[in-house]
Each structure stands twice: as structure tokens, then as C-alpha cells.
Design goal:
The chain has 13 helices and two strands, in the order αααααααββαααααα. By secondary structure, the chain is mainly α. It is globular, with a radius of gyration of 20 Å.
Length: 327
């Protein structure tokens, strides 16, 4: 068992496009759940809309990559409006049921064979990153970096764009939450009847929050798509649960908590995904095969999520007073 290789593979995940995309998705979910109190269980649907909107715009309509990003984000706005207008007056648990169903409907639409020429059905979409890679200003050659962070020229381009988008999104959300609009949103989270009594249109503010958080979440889906292919089997319900895990780990009602939570989630997951199969192969865990060891990773993540919710629901960076709406 090569423990140094396990540590190297784990550290490699810190700057991966998947980690950056999860951080963006968790930040968008923080706008929904952490700051507004919307129990949105359709996070994977927003990510799928963003990724597919981006890929289809390039492959089917021949759009430049930067216009495709705008189209993907615009599609997430439309999805948020369609989802939010009839549902945001529902109570929290009913909203959760509707949003998780909506995300599954979106996934099945991309999975169905009726739209195979456009969506690729079960095979998904690939080959849409060429225009994005052609805009890469980095010098030819590679890989570049040091230690476990050795990446190709194209990988660094995705990482740079992803980090820039994450930084802009953090600044945007931070500014929003410090504004009068953000104070109204937090008030809705705590007691929407009191906010309504002050003359505020609670439904309008909720819809705005759903749109803004949905756009940030869709941006996470686009960043992940820049580094890999788009496949409907990725945007399953467990994807939403993983993002909730990252959010709760860092702190739901915080700005930097989602980023910290996403990094910790993928670092721990990568560490266990490398460690447990290695231990099983070395005979340290003789009762587990390699495949069973991989499944054990998800079991441990599930147990960790339960313990987190029980003993520290506010997360690492969170303030317990800001999560009174969960009770």
C-alpha cells in the first residue's frame, strides 16, 4: 500500500474542477437554504440545467463558449421561475418534495431517447470544450505545477476560470447579504410573517433568492462540465445530498462555509476512496472486496452527515443562533 500516493491523490482534489463546482453549488444552496430558509432539494436539477444548457448551446447551435455560459445561466433562471412561481407559497417540507421531483423530471428528460440528437440520452454529451480550450492563453507544454498539483495546460485553464468565477460569486453573495435585500432575506428565514407584516412582498423576495441561488448553482454545473463530459446519471438525488453535506459541514448560513465544506468533503471522500480499497487489497480489511470498500465510503459519508446534523448543525464556520429556523 503506497500511502504517499494516497495522500497525493487526496491533495489533488483540492483544486479539481469538481471541487470548485461543488463549492459554487453549495454557495448557491446557501442562498436558498442557509439565508432564505428554502428547503430546495433540487440542487442537482439546477446543475444539470446549467451544464446541459452550456453543452447544447455549443454542440447544437454552434455558440461561442462564453455565450453558451450565459445561455446555461439563463436556462437556470427560466427553470427557477417555472419551479418557484407555483411552489414558493408551499410549506418547507412540501417545497422539498416538489423540488426533488422537479430535479428528477429534468434528469429523465435529458435521459429519454426522444431527444437523443440533442441531449445524447444515456451517453450524455462530449466534445464541447474545444472552443473553450482554444481560448486558453497559457503556454503550450506541460504538465505544470508542483507536488500533487501537476495539471495539464487545459486543466489549469479550467481551474483558473473556475476559481475566478467562485471568487466573483463569493463577492456577489457577500455584498447581497450585507445589503438591505439580504437583511430582508434573513428576516424571511427567521419569521416570514413578521416580514410580511412590515409590508414586504415575501413571495417576490423568495423568488428572487431562488433565481439568484439557482444561477450560482448552475454555474457550478458549468464549471464541472468544463473539465469533463455531461451525463444525466451524474445529476441524481445523491448529488443533492452530497452538496447539502458540503454546505452543512462548512456552515449553512455563512459565505465561506460552503467553500470550506466542499473542499473538506472532496478531500475526505478522495482519501477514503483511495485508503479503503488499498486496505482491502492489502488484507487489512479481509471482509471487504475492492468494490465493497468503495461502497463503504458512501456509508461512512452518510453516517458523518447524520452525526453532523445531530451534534453541529451550524457547521464549522456557522453560528448556532443563525440556524433557529431549522427547529
Amino acid at each position: 500500500m503506497d500511502f504517499l500516493q494516497i495522500l497525493s491523490n487526496t491533495a489533488n482534489q483540492i483544486l479539481s474542477p469538481t471541487t470548485i463546482g461543488f463549492a459554487l453549488a453549495a454557495l448557491g444552496l446557501a442562498v436558498h437554504f442557509g439565508f432564505t430558509g428554502l428547503l430546495n432539494m433540487g440542487v442537482a436539477g439546477f446543475m444539470a440545467i446549467g451544464a446541459y444548457g452550456f453543452a447544447i448551446s455549443i454542440l447544437t447551435f454552434g455558440m461561442p463558449w462564453w455565450i453558451a455560459v450565459i445561455i446555461g445561466l439563463g436556462a437556470s433562471v427560466v427553470f427557477a421561475l417555472i419551479l418557484g412561481i407555483p411552489t414558493l407559497r408551499l410549506r418547507g417540507d412540501y417545497l422539498a418534495i416538489v423540488t426533488i421531483a422537479a430535479a428528477e423530471v429534468v434528469r429523465l428528460l435529458f435521459l429519454t431517447t426522444a431527444f437523443t440528437p440533442v441531449t445524447g440520452s444515456a451517453d450524455g454529451l462530449s466534445g464541447f470544450q474545444a472552443d473553450f480550450r482554444a481560448a486558453n492563453p497559457l503556454p503550450e507544454g506541460g504538465p505544470f505545477g508542483f507536488g500533487p498539483w501537476m495539471y495539464s495546460r487545459d486543466q489549469w485553464w479550467v481551474i483558473i476560470i473556475g476559481v475566478l468565477l467562485l471568487a466573483v460569486s463569493v463577492l456577489f453573495v457577500w455584498s447581497l447579504m450585507r445589503s438591505p435585500w439580504g437583511r430582508v432575506i434573513k428576516g424571511i428565514r427567521e419569521d416570514e410573517d413578521a416580514v410580511r407584516a412590515l409590508g414586504k412582498n415575501v413571495f417576490s423576495f423568495k423568488l428572487q433568492a431562488l433565481v439568484i441561488g439557482g444561477v450560482v448553482t448552475a454555474l457550478g454545473g458549468i464549471v464541472i462540465a468544463l473539465g469533463t463530459n455531461v451525463n444525466p446519471n451524474v445529476y441524481v438525488t445523491s448529488q443533492t445530498f452530497f452538496i447539502y453535506t458540503a454546505l452543512l459541514l462548512g456552515g449553512a448560513a455563512t459565505i465561506f462555509g460552503p467553500i470550506l465544506g466542499a473542499v473538506l468533503f472532496w478531500v475526505v471522500r478522495a482519501f477514503l476512496s483511495n485508503l479503503l480499497p488499498a486496505l482491502a487489497g492489502a488484507g487489512v480489511l479481509p471482509f471487504l472486496s475492492g468494490e465493497q470498500a468503495q461502497m463503504m465510503v458512501f456509508i461512512l459519508i452518510g453516517v458523518a452527515l447524520m452525526l453532523l446534523v445531530i451534534f453541529r448543525p451550524q457547521g464549522i464556520l456557522g453560528n448556532k443562533k443563525e440556524l433557529t429556523f431549522v427547529k
